[in-house]
Input
Amino acid sequence: MSEQVTLTQFIIEQQRGLPDASGTFTLLLNNLVTACKQISHRVNRGALIGVLGSAETENVQGEVQKKLDIITHEIMVKALDWSGHVGGMASEEIDDPIQIPKQYPKGKYLVLFDPLDGSSNIDINLTVGTIFSILRGREGVAPETEDFLRKGNEQVCAGFVLYGPSTMLVLTTGNGVNGFTLDQDIGEFILTHCNMKIPEDNTEFAINMSNQRFWEAPVKQYIDECVAGEDGPRGKNFNMRWVASLVADVYRILNRGGVFLYPYDLRDPSRPGKLRLMYEANPMAFIIEQAGGVCTTGRESILDIKPKNIHQRVPFIFGSKNEVERVISYHRQHDSAGN
Ligand code: AHG
Ligand code: MN
Ligand code: MN
Output
């Protein structure tokens, strides 16, 4: 039997290479992953345990919450707040940063998360996930909102867990991207996808076409050319996928390439895109760029954005290097023509 590398072994072996590494990060990650195993179990049991459907409440985003949005948020907080490794948390589901209860020690890490991504799919049994981002904060200090508003290139770790046909963890700590599959028999994540790399070219795009009338010209141009296929300027046919679960679209692109666009939306300048910078775009951008892909708003690198607020939305375009660079060039041409 081939030697199986567990997530714990993988992280400890990676830590050995980091001079100032303490075991704290390994313990934090183990708590985080335990929460995701608990979420996987709830998601998998679904209707059997009455967790589907709407909670009939709204979150800070003004979105109606699913019962599982709230359940998964609570699982994440309860798995991390007592650990002594975390100084504070930020969640898609709660307006302000979550402080560590005073009876627990405050650690040096800040954890930001989307506890259930793609939740519009939960009632139709499609893949959903959990996305997390880890920043180094100020040890022993109750963090202010400002402590969370750090650029994506300051993340020390980013990952997501897919609750799909398999439960999978995709993780980066800045040394490449690795995928782990949950072995349900032993409850361990096993290394199955080493050093994932995104193909630089691909003929598959992911976008919600129903928003076409609200896109800027460079995005319209790029998509029109893909749809024109081999008779058009690209001289080849393209395919389209749209799962409406960012985690699923990211995982597909990590595996076989492609380009994902949730672009600038002309409807409301205060909502320049749908996806949230701090706990969707930033962690995914860290992963995608570590795998050789490119991530942009169309005009600037996602990881260089100085955040203004925790729930800030951004246009998010990422994927195969050569395709995303083409989209960026269309934005540059459009802007320099003074449009
Ligand atoms: P969430 O369920 O955490 O709100 O995220 C949903 C996001 C993302 O997962 C997906 O790419 C996008 O919303 C889909 O948006 P549309 O439903 O507008 O296509
Ligand atoms: Mn989400
Ligand atoms: Mn969510």
Notes: The chain has two domains: 7-193, 204-336. Residues 114, 117, 246, 280 surround manganese (II) ion (ligand 2) (CB under 6 Å). The chain is about 30% helix and 20% strand.
